[in-house]
Amino acid sequence: MLKTAFSRRALPLLQRRWTSQTTQQPFPPDINEWSHPPSNATISDEEIYRLAAKPRRPLTLADLVRHGKPPLRDAALLDSANFTLSLLPARLAHRIQALRNLPFIVVANPHVSKIYNNYLHSLSTLEPFYKKPIETIEEEMKFTDVMADLVRTHSNTIPTLAQGFLQCRKYIEPAEVTTFLDQHLRARIGTRLVAEQHLALHMASTGDAATQPPDSHHVGVIDLALRPADIVRQCEGFVGEVCELKYGVRPSLVINGEVDAEFAHIPMHLEYIITELLKNAMRATIESGKEGEPIEVTIASAPDVTTTKLDSLKKLSVTEANAFDFSQEGLDEYCSSPDADIGPLNAAAPCITLRIRDRGGGIPPEALANIWSYSFTTFNKDEVDEASDDTGGSAGLNAISHSGTDQSSIAGLGYGLPLGRAYAEYFGGAIAVQSMYGWGTDVYLTLQGIGKMEETKKAKTGFEKLQAENGNE
């Protein structure tokens, strides 16, 4: 899986001191206004302000397949690098500004401060590249190393932020935590995805991979023929093992409906969402004593979808509540761009819905209103206190990061469901919950694909095009 390939090791934590960067100033430094934690990053505040003020265009699944099927020719690989570079600096700068807007006592927390410095570090490493286009393969290779460093650096953002906000819960309101995390983690989806897409295209277009037969179904991290039923079975195996580890038993799972349905989407996103939903369903089923009742997953594809993704984008408006990953100026520019009027954006995107039904007793009415809050958890107070302790909470926090880690707890810390919804909604999907207290819960997961992908599936790779051209000469 791509996500595990780039997250094997994290960068060492930079040493931070509450001192000035020069030896001439006294400690503590004489500062009359709010300041942010010091960092070893070299990028200036003025540059951060300039980048954060730039329009941020939306990222669509169609953008991720625009460069063609790998292995790519050099020109397409350079286009991918420059496209990635056109998106990342403004997004990183905007998140740095958002972190600075938190109360200083929160940003000063070691875990939140680590994330803050990670963003400064990543933006600093991009600075040598974004001021002029990448024009050679040598420059592209250096840029790709920076992208790999960025993915590794931010691989543990979710559990690190979770621990930081747990420790700071006395100093910030739960509603403010939910608003910040909802925006920050949604923005992180796009930042990480655009970096991982270029890395995947680079790896599939260089070295030994370029000499192997191409995968007709994959364009980087996009699977053009993704079968939700296959993802459900994979996640069932993983979550079932966690259930047996914790409870000694696992519920059965039945898949019905259109089990052969497929569409173009990102497997690791769907894997995360399904894992979190099955964790909730299996835990509720077992703890209610209904482990004999199977969990039912029904798959359905919408037969008649006429609205294109471009139509949907044109109707959007950016407000303070949804300004997590793009600005109104960037949206307007994107919708008026000639590139937005071609390809998959103008094809009706297929829509697939999964219903996950359990007999786990439903959600108590007093808890139903809080299920989308990042501050809400089904852990009791002692377990939350243990998780927020640096010495004892890593195992519980691992359960909220991603399904590729070694997880020892079936219960998360309140991040699984809202983060799953963020993944679903990022590309126009949704999650809806219907609970019958005393009986069970139905969760409806709706996902939108890219559009009609038949032409993309049949399209030649960059090297196949080159061979065809040489054959015609």
TrEMBL record:
GO biological process: regulation of glucose metabolic process
EC numbers for this chain: 2.7.11.-
Domain annotation Histidine kinase: ranges: 267-451
Single GO term (MF): ATP binding
Origin: domain of life: Eukaryota
Location(s), subcellular: Mitochondrion matrix
Region of interest: Disordered: 18-37
Keyword list, A-Z: ATP-binding, Kinase, Mitochondrion, Nucleotide-binding, Phosphoprotein, Transferase, Transit peptide
Top EC class, one word: transferase
UniProt xrefs under Gene3D superfamilies: Alpha-ketoacid/pyruvate dehydrogenase kinase, N-terminal domain, Histidine kinase-like ATPase, C-terminal domain
A Pfam family per the record: BCDHK_Adom3
A GO CC term attached to the entry: mitochondrial matrix
Family, per entry: Belongs to the PDK/BCKDK protein kinase family.
The protein's name: Protein-serine/threonine kinase
